[in-house]
Amino acid sequence: xxxRIQFPIDYIEPVFRPPSEAHSLILPVTxxxxxxxxxxxxxxxxxxxxxxxxxxxRVLEEIRQCxxxxxxxxxxxxxxxxxxxxxxxxxxxxxxxxxxxxxxHRVTSYCLxxxxxxxxxxxxxxxxxxxxxxxYVGAESGDDEVLxxxxxxxxxxxxxxxxxxxxxxxxxxxxxxxxxLGGRSLSExxxxxxxxxxxxxxxxxxxxLVVSFPRGLDRYREQFPDFQPLDQQELFxxxxxxxSELALEDTVFRSDHASNYLVLKGVxxxxxxxxxxxxRTAIERPDRAGLRAEWMRxx
Length: 299
Prior knowledge:
- The model has no long low-confidence stretch (mean pLDDT 94).
- 40% of the residues are buried.
- The protein has 9 helices and 10 strands.
- The protein is an alpha/beta fold.
- It starts with 24 loop residues before the first strand and ends in a 15-residue tail after the last helix.
């Protein structure tokens, strides 16, 4: 009888990662999210996902064992914000990855703007030189009123400062904006100010997801009592305004997450007019826009 080989990493479910990290080794260095107060997010609300830094020796041992048993080319540092860890600790983790998994050519992580701001540009450069290549930053919105209503704990200025600091350090950024986050009452300012934030910071990658509420709206409405979700056409109108306001030079844009009705892919600004035409078709002739059926969306 062949002995069953145990996977080297002890995961605490559920585990989340960006869509583009589907083929990466998910390496948890923290459990949960260090903020975990955003009213739109239920990712880390389960009792077992209470935030803590994982034991460093255990993480280093898992890296060593993965190096012995697996061929790994990409690593995603989980959970919600590995960058909350001190720089010296992150450097030891990155150095262990380089030592035990030499085939790895890219390490990435989710990142909260507040924890980016706590690190100096020099620290961020050290992390880049040690192998950290890209940060996924959930900006969600560039509008201060929307950010306050969803208890993000950030502002336009704080997010801009973080993204510009990462850029100065040579780290790539992939920024997420949530379509529909401001509801009907704040939709226009959400679109305009989110575009303004992107224009200022010029991220390498930009994606939009549709805000969703699989567990209902009660938690969300605690700070946003008059919130009214956008219907499908209103989501497209908001997207049209957002894209119209963007002035990006060379940003890879994706609106292909499972939550999106309309899949958009391109480089901004090269493909801006083409994608705007797609959105306008979805507004005016949704039957011709190739939209995802409701049952196909992952919320």
